[in-house]
């Protein structure tokens, strides 16, 4: 009986991450990853039942390491500083989605989602969790009368769309994007201003 270990699992994730970013999703195979890790495909499948699930875990781990703290800051918001909390969150969020690795992940998911289940797997493992955290923050702000009451799913979608609007389409198309700290700060300020105006009590 094979014994699974966290160290082995992490080694697989590290090598899989390098392989996906080097070759892309389609050209990466479980055989290639197992060869790079050292071991059999059976061992690899013992940890991750499919390439889609392995890729999803790579994406989730990458996001968790880079941006997990940003969602935590929303929960620490002091009453009356909702705009400040959204600003801090937005800057951390855009800083993450502008990383080359994050852009590559988005492109791979979009390319494969039309004919595999990777789109749903990716959404459930990452964006949905983040959206739920944002929705919880907005729910509290609405309960405190800081924002008007509205459908939480719609409000969350509006906020995330505003944050992404100025840079994500350009990132996905490979167009030049100014992602300096100062520029991201200004982008988030505009997005938060538009959102808080639209959802003013």
Task: Walk me through what this model shows.
- The chain is an all-alpha fold and 201 residues long.
- Helix content is 77%, strand content 0%.
- The chain contains eleven helices and no strands.
- Helix 1 packs across helix 2, helix 4 (51-75) packs parallel to helix 8 and helix 5 crosses helix 11 (181-198).
- It is elongated, with a radius of gyration of 19 Å.
- The chain starts with 5 loop residues before the first helix and ends with a helix.
- The model has no long low-confidence stretch (mean pLDDT 91).
Question: Which tags fit this structure?
Answer:
single chain, 11 helices, mainly alpha, 0% strand, 201 residues, elongated
Quick overview:
By secondary structure, the protein is an all-alpha fold. 77% of the residues lie in helices and 0% in strands.
The helix-strand sequence is HHHHHHHHHHH
Question: Termini, distance in Å?
Answer: 61 Å
Radius of gyration: 19 Å
Number of strands: 0
Proportion of β residues?
Answer: under 5%
Q: Main β-sheet: number of strands, strand sense, barrel status? A: none
* Helix percentage: over 70%
Class by SSE composition: mainly alpha
The shape is: elongated
* Alpha plus pi helix count: 11
Strand-helix topology:
Layout lengths: L5 H22 L2 H8 L3 H7 L3 H25 L6 H16 L2 H13 L5 H8 L1 H17 L8 H14 L2 H6 L7 H18 L3
Helix pairs in contact: 1-2, 1-4, 1-6, 2-3, 4-5, 4-7, 4-8, 5-11, 8-9, 9-11
